[in-house]
Structure to design on (565 residues):
């Protein structure tokens, strides 16, 4: 259409000789102008509002540094595209990824890969032989208790019971409650039992999920859909500390939400609640804190977060995935977590608790709880017009493994409240023992981060490179978690580590003493640079620098690709 080609501003375009056409064009242009201006104003105000919220939430310095970060990343991404540099980087990447692959994927004449179905089925004995062989391909010797977290073992007889439960329900599927009424009953009971532990009030509800991440995804989705349906929010934001579990980043990625990370207090390692308050705006759909968080094992100041949540009427999620069956028992043991964190806190609207962590259920189970059904309904998925029939599903999965639910129910019933109380007593005692070894200088040159009261303790050092400690501990068979921003390590105590605490302290002591000694010698001889950085030290040395973040992404992708080679 010719009218579309008129200039936006003013009436100075090509004017037809005919007055009539002119008039029509004029009218057209005005309408168009108006429309365009309106669109422009809408567009501009949207960006203005975003800019304003950003400035208000982060301040000038915060905004500038975020901008710098983004630009620097973009710059380095471009930089690595320069062919000569790309070549060098690719070579290094290939080498590193090959190393990872060699470690992860065993090769050799004695390893057979079965990449195609056998023509005829195997005998049970042949299958069992391979099952046993594959089970012996253990990399970390977790049974000795030298692995941080990861294996939440409930004991041999617990595993026996779970296996029996699993066998009985291996065809079970909660998608069909009419076919498996017993599973439906057990699932509802598991949710109730966990709600009871977290002081769920009258009307509180929940669902089971496949794990902590799915519970977090559900909490974020429910908050997003609530805000969309009740307030028309289309650019949803979550406010959570930098220490919140990466599952929140995943939720933001999957559900197109913005995760606004909040710094933590440098002394307490709890979320900075002033920063949280400043970030609250009309797009905020959820505030979150941990009880405790994965990196440092610190419980955020949930009661303070609750005050903010109540004041602005925003849902508040407490991530107790890790705290699971430990934190509900602290009070009874006279251990002060510094804050309440369950449904007794008025602003708390949802809590996630992993039955597959300190609940000792088989891997693949967690519970997401809500204060009321009016929030839970927003995580539901309905397809009522589907030609396959009316379809309704409470969580991400369609079919759900009933066997896992049976195993979970059996585990909870076997432990009972007193079983978990004892487990909490042992775990917190182990953490206290490690803390005192560090605080007293029995293990030299370290400090504990914050005031961890549950099952995880994080530590760092201002005298030796903390990642060197990790690498030296790896040589002694340990598998500790490396943390970053700030650089630190943690150990998550489990039932298995309980028996290895004394070894841990002795090994740490000798490792740190050794590193201090080496450092002293190097200083005497004037050696500045380290000769051989270990694996962790090298990786986090790379990850720590902004110029190499793009490369770390590629390493991570390569790592994931390896999983399916
Ligand atoms: C383990 C954990 C989760 C969930 O992790 P999954 O691996 O999905 O079970 C969430 N939050 C915290 C703090 C955790 O430690």
């Amino acid at each position: 259409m010719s009218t579309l080609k008129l200039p936006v501003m003013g009436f100075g375009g090509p004017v037809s000789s005919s007055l009539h056409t002119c008039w029509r064009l004029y009218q057209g242009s005005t309408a168009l102008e108006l429309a365009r201006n309106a669109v422009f104003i809408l567009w501009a105000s949207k960006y203005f509002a975003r800019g304003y919220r950003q400035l208000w939430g982060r301040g000038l310095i915060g905004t500038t540094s975020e901008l710098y970060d983004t630009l620097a990343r973009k710059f380095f991404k471009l930089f690595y595209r320069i062919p000569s540099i790309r070549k060098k980087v690719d070579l290094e990447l290939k080498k590193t990824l090959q190393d990872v692959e060699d470690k992860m994927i065993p090769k050799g004449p004695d390893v057979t890969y079965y990449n195609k179905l056998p023509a005829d089925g195997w005998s049970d004995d042949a299958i069992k032989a391979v099952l046993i062989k594959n089970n012996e391909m253990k990399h970390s010797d977790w049974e000795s208790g030298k692995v941080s977290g990861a294996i939440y073992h409930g004991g041999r007889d617990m595993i026996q019971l779970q296996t029996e439960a699993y066998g009985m329900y291996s065809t079970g599927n909660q998608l069909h409650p009419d076919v498996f009424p017993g599973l439906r009953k057990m699932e509802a009971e598991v949710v109730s039992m966990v709600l009871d532990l977290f002081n769920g009030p009258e009307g509180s509800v929940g669902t089971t999920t496949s794990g902590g991440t799915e519970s977090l995804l559900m909490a974020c989705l429910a908050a997003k859909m609530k805000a969309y349906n009740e307030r028309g929010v289309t650019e949803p934001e979550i406010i959570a500390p930098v220490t919140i579990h990466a599952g929140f980043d995943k939720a933001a990625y999957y559900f197109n939400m913005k995760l606004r990370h909040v710094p933590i207090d440098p002394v307490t390692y709890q979320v900075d609640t002033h920063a949280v308050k400043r970030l609250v705006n009309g797009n905020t759909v959820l505030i979150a804190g941990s009880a405790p968080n994965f990196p440092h094992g610190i419980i955020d100041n949930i009661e303070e977060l609750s005050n903010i949540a109540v004041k602005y009427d925003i849902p508040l999620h407490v991530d107790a995935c890790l705290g699971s069956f430990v934190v509900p028992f602290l009070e009874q043991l006279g251990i002060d977590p510094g804050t309440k964190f369950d449904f007794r806190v008025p602003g708390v609207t949802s809590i996630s608790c992993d039955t597959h962590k300190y609940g000792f259920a088989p891997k693949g189970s967690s519970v997401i709880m809500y204060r009321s059904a009016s929030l839970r309904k927003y995580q539901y998925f309905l397809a009522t017009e589907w030609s396959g029939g009316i379809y309704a599903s409470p969580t991400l999965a369609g079919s759900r493994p009933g066997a896992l639910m049976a195993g979970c129910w059996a585990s909870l019933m076997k432990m009972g409240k007193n079983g978990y109380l004892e487990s909490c007593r042992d775990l917190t005692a182990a953490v206290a023992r490690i803390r005192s070894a560090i605080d007293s200088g029995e293990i030299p040159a370290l400090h504990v981060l914050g005031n961890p009261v549950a099952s995880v303790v994080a530590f760092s050092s201002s005298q030796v490179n903390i990642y060197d400690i990790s690498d030296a501990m790896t040589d002694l068979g340990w598998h500790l978690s490396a943390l970053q921003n700030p650089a630190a390590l943690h150990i998550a105590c489990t039932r298995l580590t309980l028996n290895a605490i004394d070894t841990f302290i002795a090994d740490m002591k000798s490792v740190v003493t050794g590193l201090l000694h080496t450092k002293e010698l190097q200083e005497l001889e004037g050696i500045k640079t380290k000769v051989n950085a270990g694996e962790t030290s090298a990786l986090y040395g790379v990850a720590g620098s902004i110029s190499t973040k793009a490369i770390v992404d590629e390493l991570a992708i390569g790592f994931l690709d390896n999983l399916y080679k």
